[in-house]
Amino acid sequence: MVPLRPYACGVTVLRAEQQPEWPDQAALQDVVARLRLLPPLVFAGECDQLKERLGAVARGEAFLLQGGDCAETFADSTADSIRDKLKTLLQMAVVLTYGARVPVVKVGRIAGQFAKPRSSAIETRDGVTLPSYRGDAVNGQEFTAEARRHDPERLLRVYNTSAATLNLVRAFTQGGLADLREVHAWNQGFVRGAGAGQRYEAMASDIDRAMAFMLACGVNPDALRAVDLYSSHEALLLDYERALTRIDSRTGLPYDVSGHLLWVGERTRALDGAHIEFAASVRNPVAVKLGPATTSEEALALVDRLDPDGEPGRLTFVSRMGAERVRDALPPLVDKVTASGAVVAWVCDPMHGNTYEAPDGLKTRRFNDVIEEVQGFFEVHRDLGTCPGGIHMELTGDDVTECIGGSGGLVESDLPMRYQTACDPRLNHQQSLELAFLVAEMLAAR
Ligand code: TRP
Ligand code: MN
What CATH number belongs to 4-444? Predict the structure, then answer.
């Protein structure tokens, strides 16, 4: 593969929002120096390949499925949890591919999603105030002064956990687990009771027949044996992302080799901020989250900054408007960006605009709101004659009780049963599969 040498980038003078307050700068610099010497987690050539596939998404020739935890944690980066998340993504991908007959580009919120922006820097419980939890990359979830201290050594654990996760992802996706002949096996071990599981079994039997037919006809089975699953995370902690930015020896250009696709969040996407400057400086495909307050001028300026050469697949806009706002807030952005001649991929994040607090204080989302936002997203693109490029989901393969609704009928009082997220509520396995069937129908009807 392509050797990369370290990229000596300067320290920015621009304002970086949402950065940790590392207590000891010397300790941070020591960690950064060690990170700079570590091998890349992903290769520049893979980033280019994903960029090409996202170009197909932007042109309406493929659909993006991006999903995973809101926040990965070191403790939950176990073989079982990673395998079940992958099986869930594979099931969703096959439902979309089979149901809508379009190629699906698969991207995990995985192997690097360890840092979280927070609305408040502090948290108070029973009169005690401590720094907020900012993801395992920065501090611990436990509500003690010791756990909540910002510790740069954690950045090395992010690197190591990401490497181990990616290793397993590559083994699973290339080594047999993702073989389409295993389509039934991906459903095993999951609660199969209600609608989506049964519907999946029926579809898997159809696929089995279709594959037996193709193989009997002598079709080359190589394409059926493996999938490419790319990694993505929010590029939030600039000390970490810069330390993992390297010059690609083939092209002489900088790539952030901590993940294939990096995104900039709604809270850090200021045009004159350090995050956008960083995203502009690397050659990976990049994405930006757009909330309902985004103006067309901002969207156009982001296109100028991040995709000055008009390279399809370079820039993805992930809208997170909320089910109530998507139909009025999204059209002006899509309209103006399209009129400018830019070719960006439009992706729907139906999670972050639909969070509310249940009476017992737990953050949750209604399955119906999630579906409603995706539906609105498809309608907006249909009305404008543009392409709905994909979905960006917070989900897990585990049987958690974090979002309400779906055919499993979870209600607010069920939430405490298995509420396990380190940050935002995720769809559980069954809700994810059900969503995939509904989105496949929208995509097929497009
Ligand atoms: N390689 C093809 C693809 O990625 C077919 C395929 C193999 C597939 N295993 C899969 C598709 C699992 C979806 C899920 O589309
Ligand atoms: Mn989230």
Answer: 3.20.20.70
